[in-house]
Specification:
Chain lengths: ~180, ~70
């Protein structure tokens, strides 16, 4: 049942924060548990399907900044993907004697240094067409969907609408109204 | 290549990757309608309707582009 309360200024903030960190958690916090679970499964499933298609380098903050920004909107999943990529990049750059921040070609900001690109190819980590498109669209769209879910949770909390709305009332049959109610004289 | 493992190495994809737009549309429809529907019992039909709408839109676009390329290019 929906309960309308005086809005607590902290509730929208908490709902938004939880919803960002774990997709759907904002809805669970507001008492919309089933919706939250559906959102959580769908958004996390979409993100990790993208990572399964594109591998560790699906999340790439250096050469794919816009996709990276969208992926970070999935909260914990996005951060985990970023951590995995960062760790692998640091290891490969370390093996090559490079600074992990200097693996991008300064002349072309969307490309790696040749030796780093070769190392990625050797380890079968380089994401190429069409897997890169599919992987980044899946994981990026997951983040954009979570923005929508977070916005919904924040708005519901700001309006003080907690829990599921009540089930729709069945229309009374023709005779029912006459029996239950009395006609005013 | 040392050894392939899921979530680490990318998958090799063929020309049929375009079909992956359908599950993407399905997830999009589920999340959008989960937020929008007033009562959850209306969710399956609302999701199916939106998914069919999006898939139909893609088919119409595809046919339109095919006609454009085939007869007007």
């Amino acid at each position: 049942m929906t309960k309308t309360r005086t809005p607590n200024p902290l509730t929208p903030f908490l709902a938004g924060l939880l919803g960002w960190l774990i997709p759907g958690a904002g809805h669970v916090y507001l008492g919309r548990t089933l919706r939250g679970v559906v959102i959580c499964i769908c958004i996390n499933g979409l993100f990790w399907t993208g990572v399964a298609i594109g591998g560790t380098f699906t999340v790439e903050p250096l050469t794919q900044r816009w996709w990276f920004a969208a992926q970070m909107c999935t909260g914990a999943s996005g951060l985990a993907g970023w951590f995995r990529q960062e760790r692998t990049r640091t290891r490969i750059a370390g093996d090559l004697g490079m600074d992990p921040r200097d693996v991008v070609d300064p002349r072309a900001p969307d490309r790696y240094q040749p030796e780093y690109a070769q190392a990625l190819l050797r380890e079968d980590l380089a994401v190429s067409y069409p897997a890169d498109n599919v992987a980044r669209v899946y994981s990026g769209v997951a983040g954009m969907l979570n923005i929508m879910a977070v916005f919904d949770a924040v708005m519901l909390a700001a309006m003080g609408r907690l829990g599921e709305p009540p089930p729709p009332q069945k229309k009374p049959k023709n005779g029912a109204k006459a029996k239950a109610g009395e006609e005013p004289k | 290549m040392i050894g392939w493992s899921l979530f680490v190495n990318p998958i090799q994809m063929g020309v049929h990757h375009v079909w992956l737009v359908l599950p993407l549309c399905a997830v999009l429809a589920v999340v959008y309608k989960t937020i929008r529907v007033e009562h959850l019992r209306h969710l399956p039909m609302a999701v199916l309707g939106l998914w069919a709408y999006m898939a139909g839109g893609f088919i119409v676009l595809g046919v339109a582009f095919w006609v454009l390329v085939e007869y007007f290019a």
